[in-house]
Amino acid sequence: MIERPKIAVITFLGSLDDHDAAWSLAAVDAEPQLVWHGESKLPKGTAAVVLPGGFSYGDYLRGGAIARFAPIMEAVTEFAAAGGLVLGICNGFQILCEARLLPGVLVRNASLSFVCRDVVLRVERTDTPFTSRCEPGQRLRIPIKHGFGNFTGSDELLAELEEKKQIVLRYHGENPNGSALNIAGVVNEAGNVMGMMPHPEHAVDPLLGSPDGALILASLADAARERSAALV
Amino acid sequence: MKATVYVRPKAGIKDPQGEAVRGSLAKSGFDIVSVRIGRVVDVELETAEREKALAELEQMSHDLLANPLIESYEIELQEET
Predict the structure, then answer these.
(1) Which of A69, A181, A187, A204 has the fewest Cβ atoms nearer than 10 Å?
(2) Which residue of A has its CA nearest to B20?
């Protein structure tokens, strides 16, 4: 029987996609556990953490700005600092940037419009815990739905991201939000924390329009499984 | 003690909101060079000590009210009269 690694999915006030994330993680043979934002600890045996999409705290001030101070974020920050795997999707990506677990910031879409549609991504790296099941340069069709997905940073930061190969996913073809360097997903320098604006949890079955998101989540499940095995 | 924190997009940071408003104003016949949109936060603090208030305002502005990567902030303490 295949080992199901425990992956914590954090529910903030205003998270929308926590249940979709949990359902999708189960579909790729992980054992998802919903964790309330008010908790101060991650469940025992947590092998990875997912911060889901949504509009935590109504996007007041800036997306993710208030969620970053939720009690559970202290545990998530410690977990990440110890090398734990963390994936932030959409609002989760914004939270990771606000918490400074990822570089840069997500600002309003250049078009000023909320965008909700499928986009095509190009996989720039396959040596990360989030893309190991992808082929180099592979195109993934995954939906986006956001008003603040425009990744930006100082010129120095952007140059550094290129140089250190921290850009894992880029929009292929049209850039839907004006993000710098067509960035759709980045990792931290250590490579254990990734944020992405597209929603892999909404694309795990051909019936949902595309199965491509499952490649990202299954990669995460693989890496989490390896870490669980190493812990035992 | 009362204070106001002004949060603005930093120079050089794109402000698509301000740009859209500039376009709209220009269409209404105003001669506009540029518009930048920020945020005004009125804060009332428990403390009556000036130094303590300033320290607290500085910390909250840096940590939450503004994102220093893209926004600058200015703190204005209202002197008690």
Answers:
(1) A69
(2) A112
Distance from CA of A96 to the nearest CA of B (A): 13
Q: For residues A59 and B68, what is the distance between their CA atoms, to the nearest angstrom?
A: 18
User: Do you know the residue count of chain B?
Assistant: 81
Active site residue A19: no
CB-based contact A61 B64, cutoff 8 Å:
yes
- To the query of whether residue A116 is one of the catalytic residues in this protein, the response is no
User: Which CATH superfamily, name and number, covers B2-78?
Assistant: Phosphoribosylformylglycinamidine synthase subunit PurS (3.30.1280.10)
CB environment B33-69: b (16+ within 10 A), e (fewer): eebeebeebebebeeeeeeebbebbeebbeebbbbeb
Range of the domain at A154: 6-231
Structure tokens at A149: 């997905």
Helices (H), ranges, B1-81:
16-27, 50-60
**Structural tokens at position A96:** 């990771």
**A203-221: pLDDT as tens digits:** 999 998 999 999 999 999 9
Mutation test of the interface with chain A: which of B15, B67, B72, choosing the one with the most A Cβ atoms within 10 A? B67
Q: Does B70 touch chain A (CB under 8 A)?
A: yes
